[in-house]
Design a protein that fits this description.
The complex is a heterodimer. In chain A, strand 6 and strand 7 form a beta hairpin. By secondary structure, chain A is α+β, with helices and mostly antiparallel strands. In chain A, the strands form two sheets. A five-stranded mixed beta sheet of chain A has the order 2-4-5-7-6. Chain A has a two-stranded antiparallel ribbon with strand order 1-3. Chain B has one domain: 3-Layer(aba) Sandwich (Rossmann fold). In chain B, the strands form two sheets. A six-stranded mixed beta sheet of chain B has the order 6-7-8-3-9-10, with helices on both faces. In chain B, strands 2-1-4-5 form a four-stranded antiparallel beta sheet, covered by helices on one side. In chain B, a hairpin with a 2-residue loop joins strand 4 and strand 5. In chain B, helix 3 packs parallel to helix 5, helix 4 runs antiparallel to helix 5 and helix 5 packs parallel to helix 6. Chain B is globular, with a radius of gyration of 17 Å. The chains are: A alpha+beta, B alpha/beta. At the A-B interface, helix 3, strand 6 and strand 7 of A face helix 2, helix 6 and helix 7 of B.
Chain lengths: 340, 221
């Protein structure tokens, strides 16, 4: 359709060209009265028409080649094959193909991501069942023993305490897993809004204050009450809580935890420093993995999901979380949230 | 999807018996959208690796493919155009053009390609990097951190296959480093941009989605 109108356009120009030339020749003949003017004029008109026709044909062929090349690329894309790499020329075709290639990669990437998400979900489910199995089988064992044998009061109390601690663990685990899976499956989207970071921090602190007091830890906070930041207060508090909770767990009685908030040019930095056992440098990146437990953390409570959750929450807000530590002296977790 | 692939990459200097093996058989796949840190001490071969990935240096043997295209099979001219369209660089010393202002520096690679910059994308990039108020400033008037933010914007603007960052925070104090790094990470995430960053600093590497360690020209672990 477009090609046809294109051809018609060329024909129109050809006609106009011939008419103009004929008119000019007639004028030249009328003015000079020479027959040679008429002959030259006719020859020029014919030549012009010929070249014009040649140009039209050449142009049409190039256009067809161009369209064919594009169609081939599109056919490859439709067939699900890789788009052939464009020639590194500066031609129009190379530039368009460059973009088509990119579009194709985006489509493929989307498909791959869906596949990846499904696999991640499967992994999450198997992780969950694995993590839940242990406390459940412990519970079953405890309950079965209680049911099977007559026991003294003291012994029964001991078993009940065991059951209590296992249910606690299970409850905590389920809580954390529900949060994680909601985040991961995109059921929850973070909602950033302008709010005072101090309030968010206070909310996180309130959940660890008793545990810290119970261990005799000194907790200090240095944060300006007027500092406002575009963030998701609820989930950021959750992330901060997990980092703080981690600090409380791994800091021995009598130690201290210090929280310092500072506004930098492009980010707000929240630093949580403790005087705990510390983390060897080789494990710095590993502590943020799901269900990671340090070799020497086996005796401490927890399931290794808090820091992972914190990293997810911070990452989804465009921030970063990192740790620096001196084993034996303590760790500092730094959460950086962007200002924008 | 693999966007950058090196296969048994080797770079030897000198000849027997005094061969220095800067890279000794590096096979590495970088997936689209990943933020990868290559960590190693100085002399481990990480800079050599980055230069090979960007087609700035030719390997002794082995191959580098970006978006499935072998760099070694290209002529010098083709490689120049290919690099401009597919690879963004962020260097330690920023490499901004001193006589161009911030906006001109950022759009330079796209305009060299005879293209127009997508205004919406340009706005998103400069807003993310906090450069909106600095567009008419000259590089000399900016702090180191700001200059590096400009060079990140310049690398992002042509939507390359991969951004190669060579110790991007090497010349910055630790505080500015953290800021710039956070922004690099944020940009990678927000614009789905593949980034390969080399660093000797373990604490900087933590920000990455994936950490590749290199020692004596080989990938360890």
């Amino acid at each position: 359709m477009k090609g046809a109108s294109f051809k018609r356009l060329f024909l129109l120009f050809l006609l106009l060209d011939a008419l103009t030339m004929a008119a000019l020749t007639a004028a030249a003949f009328a003015l000079s009265g020479e027959l040679s003017a008429l002959i030259f004029g006719a020859a020029m008109t014919a030549c012009a028409a010929l070249w014009m026709a040649t140009l039209t044909a050449a142009f049409a062929r190039r256009l067809e080649q161009f369209a064919n090349a594009l169609s081939r690329t599109l056919d490859e894309m439709i067939a699900g094959r890789a788009v052939p790499p464009p020639a590194d020329g500066e031609t129009l075709l190379a530039r368009i193909q460059q973009r088509l290639g990119r579009l194709d990669r985006i489509f493929r990437e989307d498909r791959r991501r869906v596949e990846l998400e499904r696999r991640e979900l499967q992994e999450l489910v198997s992780d969950i069942s694995h993590q839940v199995k242990t406390p459940v089988s412990n519970l079953r064992l405890l309950v079965d023993t209680l049911l099977a044998e007559p026991a003294t009061d003291a012994r029964r109390r001991e078993f009940l305490r065991g059951i209590h601690s296992q249910t606690d663990k299970l409850g905590f685990l389920v809580d954390a897993l529900v949060k994680t899976s909601r985040l991961e499956t995109g059921l929850i989207s973070l909602e950033k809004r302008d709010a005072p970071l101090y309030d968010t921090l206070a909310q996180a602190m309130s959940s660890i204050v008793y545990a810290a007091e119970g261990k005799g830890l000194t907790v200090t906070v240095d944060c300006s009450e007027s500092l406002r930041l575009n963030h998701d207060p609820k989930w950021t508090a959750e992330a901060l809580f997990n980092v703080l909770d981690n600090a409380v767990k791994y800091t021995p009685p009598g130690g201290s935890i210090a929280v310092a908030v500072e506004r930098w040019e492009m980010s707000v930095q929240v630093r949580v420093s403790d005087t705990g056992r510390g983390i060897p440098e080789s494990q710095w990146a590993a502590v943020f993995q799901r269900f990671y437990r340090g070799e020497d953390a086996r005796d401490a409570p927890g399931v290794g999901i808090g820091l992972y959750l914190a990293r997810e929450i911070v990452g989804r807000q465009g921030g970063t979380i990192a740790v620096a530590s001196e084993p034996g002296r303590g760790s500092t977790f730094t959460i950086a949230l962007p200002i924008d | 999807m693999t966007i950058l692939q090196t296969t048994d990459l080797k770079k030897y200097y000198g000849r027997e018996p005094n061969v220095v093996k800067a890279l000794d058989g590096v096979t590495l796949s970088i997936e689209e959208g990943q933020f990868v840190a290559v960590v190693g001490t100085s002399g481990s071969g990480k800079s050599t690796l980055l230069h090979m990935m960007g087609g700035l240096d030719a390997p002794t043997s082995g191959s580098v493919a970006v978006r499935g295209q072998e760099l070694a099979q290209k002529t010098a001219d083709e490689l120049t155009i290919f690099r401009r369209r597919n690879i963004g660089f962020v260097f330690q010393n920023y490499n901004l053009v001193p006589v161009l202002n911030v906006r001109e520096n950022i759009v330079l690679p796209v305009e060299l390609d005879g293209d127009a910059v997508d205004p919406a994308y340009f706005d998103a990039v400069i807003r993310t990097l906090g450069l909106a108020e600095k567009l008419t400033a000259m590089p000399g008037q900016l702090s180191g951190g700001q200059q590096q933010r400009v060079s990140i914007a310049r690398a992002l603007i042509s939507k390359p296959a991969v951004i190669l960052a060579d110790e991007p925070t090497g010349n910055l104090d630790s505080r500015t480093s953290a800021d710039v790094l956070g922004l690099l990470k944020l940009s990678s995430r927000r614009f789905d941009q593949t980034v390969v960053m080399i660093t000797h600093n373990e604490s900087i590497a933590q920000t990455a989605d994936r950490i590749v360690r290199i020692e004596d020209g080989r990938i360890v672990r």
